Amino acid sequence: xxxxxxxxARKYIGGYGLVAWxxxxxxxxxxxxxxxxxxxxxxxxxxxGTPVPVxxxxxxxxxxxxxxxxxxxxSSGGIASxxxxxxxxxxxxxxxxxxxxxxxxxxxxxxxxxxxxxWGKSTWxxxxxxxxxxxxDEIRVAGIGPSGELMNRLANxxxxxxxxxxxxxxxxxxxxxxxxxxxxxxxxxxEVAALDELMELCRDLYLRCxxxxxxxxxxxxxxxNVLVHNxxxxxxxxxxxxxxxxxxxxxxxxxMLKNLVKKISACPSCPIACDHINMVEEGPWAGAVASxxxxxxxLLGPNCGVGDLNAITRAVEYxxxxxxxxxxxxxxxxxxxxxxxxxxxxxEDCDGLELRFGNAEAMVEAVRRxxxxxxxxxELLSDGSARAAEKVGKDSSQYVITNKKMEWGAYSMRSLxxxxxxxxxxxxxxxxxxxxxxxxxxxGKVDRYKLDRSRGKIVYEGENLYAAIDSMVICKFxxxxxxxPGEMARVIRLVTGFDMDEEEMIRAGxxxxxxxxxxxxxxxxxxxxxxxPPRAFNEKLYDDVSDGAVIKYEEYEEALSGYYEHRGWNEExxxxxxxxxxxxLDMGMGVE
Length: 592
Prior knowledge:
Layout: H1 6-12, H2 15-26, E1 40-44, E2 58-63, E3 70-75, H3 79-85, E4 90-93, E5 101-106, E6 109-114, H4 123-134, E7 140-143, H5 146-149, E8 157-159, E9 163-165, H6 170-176, E10 179-185, H7 195-209, H8 215-219, H9 225-232, H10 253-259, E11 261-265, E12 275-279, E13 289-291, H11 294-300, H12 309-322, H13 326-341, H14 360-372, H15 375-381, H16 385-392, E14 402-403, E15 406-407, H17 417-425, H18 438-442, H19 455-472, H20 485-496, H21 502-522, H22 535-538, E16 541-542, E17 547-549, H23 553-567, H24 577-583
Parallel strand pairs: 5-10
Antiparallel strand pairs: 1-2, 1-4, 2-3, 5-6, 7-8, 7-10, 8-9, 11-12, 12-13, 14-15, 16-17
Helix pairs in contact: 1-2, 2-19, 2-21, 11-13, 12-14, 14-15, 17-19, 19-21, 19-23, 20-21
């Protein structure tokens, strides 16, 4: 057990910051992401286990087998607060076990236990089996399913049944280490610097969490976005060919709540309760149970032309239990559907499936085969659409919707152009959670059908703030309840005792983002990696809202250069030594 130096805790806060710091210091250039030389870093934030609302979140990262750059995901549930109660802020895992194992943390005690009998089991069954085996229903488990064991590059990690470290293939890294699960039990108290003052502030924050800023999440969950985005023409449909879906009402959050939601639940310390759990009661997918959020619903639904919530629920259940990222799964199947319709994939290539847009049965079955790497289709799709296109060849790469080989999130490209800049420059690949740049487009703060140099500032400022939030780690659904970032800094100050103000917190966010960027540069990242896919430039968007929207290449180039300028990077996207000196980072990776 090592004690984290106070200087590092101040500079990187926790969570995402400490993941970026750990990976940069532990993984040299040239490492294969699926080799024993890769490292898994799991870190909580300073507020985990405290009265701060929606603070039981952790970040798990490694060199991504999907992108080849920094990989990480953020998950809610009880893992972070339990690990903190066990006396740990984080763990870093090296090497590879000779046979399947799981890691058991019981307060200060750590055991590596045999998991041979768990290999091949679903994530849900693994969680329950470990609790039975250790005779403790309160143990928290983060584990992989068969997809992770097969080292599918889209594999995720599931904890608390309905929470995932979803993106960048972290489940594959666990599988490569023969690590079936990480589980923990903690019974110690978590101390804070100023309990009385923190409690007073938190009482107010909890009341705000029950106010209008989070109402849509409480009532409909994130699927409330379906109809909003459809009205704006930014609901990706048929592999991002359109931004509206004719069956949007059928898959809306409103319809889901009325017909399928059987339970609304919350994570520890959360007064919002956004988790809407569906149960299918009849039809071919009867018995399917899954927590369905907007991203999962959209990518497996409208983006595949599927307007059946029952089928979407089954597909999400397969992803969660077998261990695959729903966003990348939906994006990859949508690519395959377009290739099938264009004659680039045959029925034989798809093992007999009619993989057409709108075919719900084929979508669900394709998900199952992907998770299990079953048959020709499962083998083709299990590592994502970019690698599948490399195998298929022809013109199939023109229909891949990725950045850094990671599938795009559920936000249209050509009708949300500030968002597209933020997705494409994200350090972990196409990612709406790095900058929140979609908000300025959706809320009408900017002309969302064009780009200019000023959009770089929006992305830059959003990334710095979000890096700080993901290092605390608090839920982004609560970002609207804080009066300003200074109030977030006050929370850090009351918990840690560090004399941190808003300026220092945002500077830490900037440092963290640059640390992640330096990691990517070590693995070859350059300007070429910061562009959206060909469809954004080459095809005009026509649907019920947009009339010929397209991203102009010269406008994107200007916006990208503007982003680099605000970041203090050169035209290739490399930080200058002057910036790195200011941020107290490794100047050996910068340019003059």
